[in-house]
Design goal:
There is one protein chain. It contains 17 helices and 20 strands. With 549 residues, it is α/β, with parallel strands linked by helices. The longest helix is centred in the last third of the chain and has 20 residues, at 519-538. The chain binds ligand TNX. The site of ligand TNX has 9 residues, from loops.
């Protein structure tokens, strides 16, 4: 097949072929930068040697992103893409570039830890050779390859020639998704999982419980889950949840479920008022589980056990954030109990950063740093907006933010790895500061938590996880990077798409890339990705402009 000269075909000159993405997000260590070569024809490709799940993912993605058919290999026919795991060795079998891909660091979130994700793709005319140290490595490689393909109007399939070498910087690359404040159906969550896989994330942290609802069926506490105003089910059955976990696992995404305790538990109190025990809450709307109430401890143990049963991964998130109204000693004691329940259920703990104050996490656990802008909480402004009876609570909340800079140093001092989720940078519910397209301007002003200072897309990209960790405390062990999106302002999936994209892609760059793109390089790729995001079911409702216009 003939080598095709640059430039690559675009929508304009192919009459409908797939548009080029002239690079990958996240950026690989070594790019296949040569001229385009033909690797398939007639809208078809063949793939040999991939594990079934990777084969299926590649075939699905090729179909979804490009309308290509991936066909089984027939005897005697050309194989366009061949996966050959044995040909890859970290550090080189003579190919010098291999040594460029550094080893991964951080905390491995996977049910079966240890698989090396580093891989190589060699693209020549008519032939693509994929090699990786594990099935997961081949999966990551095929994920890159499918994004490098372009199809011209005749159905010929092209890819840039040369070698791609790649592997992750951090072992934990996640998104925390709030399915409580706005419920997302299981089908909607699968779309998010596809998006995560496209950008090489490997953790979906599901925030399943909060004061506004409880989204996972409980056998022991059936009243926790409720139907919506029109009778629609607004929670996942255990079977549905297991299916989601499986769907994610096939895309090498591990689900980390969160049961948020002891604060953020209003929904539990609504369903089971006996959780109050003998104690009246400081205010009817300010509720938290107390360590001296036996019903509260039993409840925590029960739900932790149920969440653990449904969790194939090693980690369970116990929440621990914003224990507003709670006495410090009670908080510490409750988190200690919950930590023990999680450990007894066979899991390691992830806790929001306040959990460091309990002094119980250790090197097996993970602390999730999130209060990136403690000064942003303005108690006096809040007091003007809430009734006077809440003012003592506002002061107490201010105190938990004031002491928050001590949380990561405390964790670092006891060897607890820290997952980086600074709300100043990777909270995707932070409103956008830069103007959107005119027809999206109303959405921009409506979406995202109004109490946050808005951030530009470029501003949210302007950080390095290693530097952030060093600025927090000496000797921080970085577990990885996790974005978060909270649902307070969402009215539907389109709103979620708007907040997630394009910033989630920018987070993948920080979490995966050993040598992250500059903002200019990154921004230049984002518009090309719009087509992929749309194909994955994110409509056209993501915030289209990468760079301010
Ligand atoms: C803080 S992040 C919370 C959530 C809110 C979020 C809004 C965290 C651990 N707690 O309850 O939804 O801010 O960004």
């Amino acid at each position: 097949m003939p080598a095709r000269p640059e430039p690559l075909p675009t929508d304009g000159d192919t009459g409908g072929g797939s548009a080029p993405v002239n690079g990958l997000v996240p950026t690989p260590v070594v790019h296949p930068g040569g001229p385009s070569v033909q690797v398939g024809r007639g809208g078809r490709l063949s793939l040999a040697g991939a594990e079934p799940a990777a084969h299926e993912w590649f075939a699905w993605a090729a179909q979804t992103l490009h309308g290509l058919r991936v066909e089984p290999v027939r005897a005697g026919a050309d194989v366009s893409v061949r996966v050959d795991g044995d040909r890859w060795r970290p550090g080189g079998d003579g190919a010098s570039e291999e040594a460029c891909v550094g080893p991964v660091t951080g905390v491995d979130p996977r049910p079966v830890p240890g698989a090396d994700e580093r891989h190589r793709i060699g693209i020549e005319e008519g032939r693509v050779a994929v090699s990786g140290a594990s099935g997961e490595a081949a999966f990551r490689a095929l994920t890159s390859l499918v994004q490098l393909l372009r199809v011209d109007a005749r159905g010929d399939v092209w890819a840039p020639s040369g070698v791609l070498e790649d592997g992750p910087r951090y072992a934990w690359r996640g998104l925390s998704l709030d399915v409580v404040r706005h419920f997302l159906t299981a089908a909607e969550v699968t779309r998010v999982i596809d998006l995560l896989a496209l950008h090489k994330f490997n953790v979906l942290h599901l925030h399943l419980t909060d004061s506004e609802g409880w989204r996972l069926e409980s056998r022991r506490r059936p009243r926790l889950t409720r139907t919506g105003p029109d009778g629609e089910r607004e929670y996942y059955t255990r079977e549905e949840f297991a299916d989601l976990v499986e769907y994610a696992a096939l895309r090498h995404v591990t689900v980390v479920p969160e049961v948020d305790l002891p604060g953020h538990t209003g929904a539990a109190f609504d369903a089971y008022p006996e959780l109050h025990g003998h104690v009246r809450p400081p205010h009817p709307r300010v509720r938290f589980l107390r360590p001296d109430v036996e019903e509260a401890r039993t409840f925590a143990r029960d739900v932790v056990e149920e969440f653990a049963e449904l969790t194939p991964g090693p980690f369970l998130h116990l929440g621990g954030d914003e224990p507003f109204g709670m006495d410090h000693g009670d908080y510490v004691e409750f988190v200690r109990h919950t930590h023990r329940y999680v450990r007894e259920a066979g899991k390691r703990v992830v806790g929001w950063q306040e959990a460091a104050r309990a002094g119980v996490l250790n090197g097996e656990d993970v602390l999730q740093y999130w209060i990136g802008a403690p000064d942003e909480f303005d108690p006096e402004a809040l007091k003007t907006a809430v009734p006077e009876e809440f003012h003592p609570l506002v002061d107490q909340a201010a105190e938990t933010f004031r002491i928050s800079p001590g949380d990561v140093p405390a964790a670092a001092g006891s060897g607890v790895p820290v997952l980086l989720s600074p709300n100043s940078l990777v909270y995707l519910d932070r409103p956008y500061a830069d103007a959107a397209e005119p027809d999206q301007e109303a959405d921009r002003l409506r979406l995202g938590l109004p109490s946050y200072e808005p951030v530009t897309v470029a501003g949210a990209f302007d950080w390095d996880p290693g530097e952030t960790a060093r600025s927090l405390a000496p000797g921080v062990i970085v577990a990885g990077v996790e974005a978060a999106v909270w649902g307070e302002t969402l009215t539907g999936f389109d709103d979620l798409a708007f907040l997630l994209l394009p910033r989630l892609a920018g987070v993948s760059e920080k979490a995966w890339s050993h040598d992250p793109a500059t903002w200019e390089e990154h921004a230049a790729l984002l518009d090309g990705y719009g087509r992929f995001w749309t194909a994955l079911g994110f409509g056209a409702h993501f915030r289209a402009a990468g760079a301010p216009r």
